[in-house]
């Protein structure tokens, strides 16, 4: 298979591409797929920028990076200046450059996209962050200490963003993380071939270097009491959406059925791919069915493929309706994932262990509340797949364990914490952001909500 691809829909003259490692090589390891831009490629790509007077790309960025400024520095070959411009608004640029859906955000509104390929903003962001990590990172300045203490619960993208913003404002920030490593979904949920763990650790260390304290293996309500938590001058809840959804079909209790959360956590965080070198096991299925069509489903399918399985991805709508990024769908297809679209499971077969999955073909008709075609079963179209493992990746909701411990905290019908536009909850001095407030969303959307909440917390503390 080809070892390179365009990262744009149609590559204009001079537009940068990122090289992919060949699919028949990369399916045997967890090394990163995209190899990134060279300095010469980055400069050439940045030189394509029109430096618009009213840059729509900035409006398309949930964390409001001054994109023309950092791109201009890249075009001038001033990579340290580009890094400074990025980190004015975003302390996690290497992460965002890899996993954010730029094609629907900053790149999606780039003026160049009207006639040719938009500027590869994500590729440039990743290049600058990687260059700085290799050549010595420079910390942004912090304000004088205010004497105020802020507790952040969760060290995922929302928690780290809020912690960085509040530390830069001069507040003393402590982050409580229930797991033994920081990073939240960046560590346990996204495979290393999309987001290398050394990249996550490096950007986490940058946040901690601002003076943020990280307390790992701390479960609120156990390791730290709710009263102790509420004793801080402000609290920011950022525990994400870690409660998996299930299809509620017969056979879900069989051995060999995983939620995507459990499967990816075992492999990404607990090294189950290296069992018995590490003592966390995971089933290595020979034939695996993954149910779902989002990025988590693609991640699960591609991880199972790297563990040696033949993988079928089952999705009830057509490929055009898949919420996954097109690049992830393309990568999965290159790596040999079989796509069974307009198909829905009805039953998981087996006695004690999974032996198959029964499915029905679906027809698409009308539009549902999400604006996508509504799938309906086709009578008489049932069939069975011989599989020995099933991974369900059909969505998540906010984890109820923490929020149920805090009296008076208003919750929505889906278990989310109810907040206003600035992240304020029903309890004074308690804020929330990211997936715990919005439900499952993207990394950059979680970071955007955290920035708004951090600004509101800073204003409240300074007013006091």
Mean pLDDT: 93
Q: Please tally the β strands and state the result.
A: 18
Q: Report the top-level CATH class of the largest domain.
A: Alpha Beta
Helix fraction, binned, reads 25-40%
Provide the β-strand percentage band. 15-25%
Total of helices: 17
The shape is: globular
The rounded distance between the terminal residues' Cα atoms is 62 Å
Taking pLDDT < 50 over at least 5 consecutive residues as the criterion, the unreliable ranges are 1-14
Question: If you compute it from the alpha carbons, what radius of gyration comes out, rounded to the nearest whole angstrom?
Answer: 23 Å
Question: Considering the protein shown, what is the CATH homologous superfamily of the largest domain?
Answer: FAD/NAD(P)-binding domain
Remind me, CATH topology of the largest domain? FAD/NAD(P)-binding domain
Largest sheet: number of strands, sense, barrel closure = 5 strands, parallel
Spatial order of the strands in the main sheet? 5-4-3-6-18
Structural class: alpha/beta
Instruction: Give the name of the CATH architecture of the largest domain.
Output: 3-Layer(bba) Sandwich
Number of domains: 3
Describe the overall structure.
The chain is built from 17 helices and 18 strands. A five-stranded parallel sheet has the order 5-4-3-6-18, with helices on one face. Strands 8-16-9-10-11 form a five-stranded parallel sheet. The longest helix is centred in the last third of the chain and has 21 residues. The N and C termini lie far apart (62 Å).
